[in-house]
Design a protein that fits this description.
mainly alpha
Length: about 160
């Protein structure tokens, strides 16, 4: 089994522990959706698509595993991801560092990061939220991040009407 599928299986096991069906549904949609967006962006930007997909699968893992809110979830998810990737024993340290860094900084949507993997994860997270709810109002940081992705102003105006 490949590494991405192994991570997916671990994430699926965590999601299955959620009590509410609606929570499980949203967790699957969000984590797999961000992972797909991250893969697409990685391929477009010439980055390692596997690393981006794995970072995306794990970016909110503490939210689901520990039932915590948004505050500090990025750092807690990064710590959980680091532990999980070490436990799996199939990742090199440089891969773990790259993935964990992206997760730890994915909530900093208004900050441009020099790390392209962190940028992919930020973009993928906002893009998934936008694609799941294209008619919902966007926060300033989401609008700013989508503008960086060159989502047309026409599409953004369509949300506001």
């Amino acid at each position: 089994m490949d590494r991405l599928e192994t991570v997916r299986m671990r994430v699926d096991a965590i999601i299955q522990t959620l009590n509410q069906e609606e929570d499980r549904k949203f967790a699957y949609l969000h984590l797999y959706g961000v992972s797909q967006c991250a893969t697409m962006l990685a391929l477009m930007r010439g980055l390692n698509a596997e690393w981006c997909a794995i970072a995306a699968m794990l970016h909110d893992i503490a939210t689901y595993a520990l039932n915590i809110g948004h505050r500090d979830h990025a750092q807690k998810s990064a710590a959980m991801a680091e532990q999980l990737l070490h436990e799996l024993g199939c990742f090199q340290q440089k891969e773990i560092v790259c993935i964990v860094y992206a997760i730890a900084h994915h909530s900093e949507k208004r900050r441009k990061d020099d790390d392209p993997y962190a940028e992919v994860l930020k973009d993928a997270d906002v893009l998934e939220h936008y694609l799941y709810h294209p008619h919902h109002p966007l926060s300033e940081s989401q609008r700013w991040r989508l503008d960086l992705l060159h989502i047309s102003s026409c599409a953004l105006q369509h949300i506001d009407t």
